[in-house]
Amino acid sequence: MPTFRRSKLRTEDPDNVLWPIMGLYTDYLVRSRYKADFRRQYAACALHFGDWLRSEGAEAGDIDEARIDRFLTGHLPN
After folding, report:
1. φ and ψ of 3, to 5 deg
2. Residue 36 reports pLDDT greater than 80
Protein backbone atom coordinates (compact mmCIF):
# COMPACT_ATOMS: atom_id res chain seq x y z
CA MET A 1 0.00 0.00 0.00
CA PRO A 2 1.45 3.41 -0.94
CA THR A 3 2.33 5.84 1.80
CA PHE A 4 1.24 9.44 1.47
CA ARG A 5 3.68 12.28 1.80
CA ARG A 6 2.97 14.42 4.75
CA SER A 7 1.98 17.86 3.55
CA LYS A 8 4.15 20.71 4.68
CA LEU A 9 2.15 23.05 6.85
CA ARG A 10 3.19 26.67 7.19
CA THR A 11 3.63 27.33 10.90
CA GLU A 12 5.72 30.51 10.72
CA ASP A 13 4.99 33.76 8.93
CA PRO A 14 6.26 36.97 10.52
CA ASP A 15 4.28 39.03 7.99
CA ASN A 16 0.95 37.46 8.97
CA VAL A 17 -1.51 39.74 10.79
CA LEU A 18 -1.87 37.13 13.56
CA TRP A 19 1.87 36.56 13.99
CA PRO A 20 2.16 38.91 17.02
CA ILE A 21 -0.22 36.65 19.00
CA MET A 22 0.87 33.26 17.66
CA GLY A 23 3.25 32.74 20.58
CA LEU A 24 0.37 33.11 23.03
CA TYR A 25 -1.73 30.70 20.97
CA THR A 26 0.95 28.03 20.72
CA ASP A 27 1.74 28.41 24.44
CA TYR A 28 -1.95 27.78 25.15
CA LEU A 29 -1.87 24.65 22.99
CA VAL A 30 1.21 23.37 24.82
CA ARG A 31 -0.27 24.09 28.26
CA SER A 32 -3.47 22.34 27.17
CA ARG A 33 -1.37 19.28 26.26
CA TYR A 34 -2.19 19.16 22.57
CA LYS A 35 0.10 16.78 20.72
CA ALA A 36 2.75 18.29 18.44
CA ASP A 37 0.95 17.27 15.23
CA PHE A 38 -2.23 18.98 16.36
CA ARG A 39 -0.30 22.10 17.41
CA ARG A 40 1.23 22.30 13.93
CA GLN A 41 -2.14 21.89 12.26
CA TYR A 42 -3.85 24.47 14.47
CA ALA A 43 -1.01 26.97 13.99
CA ALA A 44 -1.28 26.53 10.22
CA CYS A 45 -5.05 27.07 10.42
CA ALA A 46 -4.58 30.26 12.44
CA LEU A 47 -2.10 31.56 9.88
CA HIS A 48 -4.54 30.74 7.08
CA PHE A 49 -7.16 32.78 8.93
CA GLY A 50 -4.62 35.61 9.23
CA ASP A 51 -3.98 35.49 5.48
CA TRP A 52 -7.69 35.72 4.84
CA LEU A 53 -8.02 38.63 7.28
CA ARG A 54 -5.35 40.55 5.37
CA SER A 55 -7.12 39.80 2.06
CA GLU A 56 -10.23 41.37 3.60
CA GLY A 57 -8.28 44.45 4.69
CA ALA A 58 -8.64 43.47 8.36
CA GLU A 59 -6.24 43.18 11.28
CA ALA A 60 -6.26 41.04 14.43
CA GLY A 61 -8.23 43.71 16.28
CA ASP A 62 -11.01 43.49 13.70
CA ILE A 63 -11.90 39.87 14.52
CA ASP A 64 -15.50 39.43 15.56
CA GLU A 65 -18.12 36.71 15.37
CA ALA A 66 -19.48 37.89 12.01
CA ARG A 67 -16.02 37.89 10.43
CA ILE A 68 -15.27 34.40 11.76
CA ASP A 69 -18.60 33.20 10.36
CA ARG A 70 -17.75 34.67 6.93
CA PHE A 71 -14.40 32.90 6.99
CA LEU A 72 -15.91 29.55 7.97
CA THR A 73 -18.96 29.61 5.71
CA GLY A 74 -17.82 31.73 2.78
CA HIS A 75 -14.13 31.04 2.43
CA LEU A 76 -13.52 27.47 3.56
CA PRO A 77 -14.84 24.59 1.46
CA ASN A 78 -17.69 22.58 2.91
Report:
1. -100, 145
2. yes
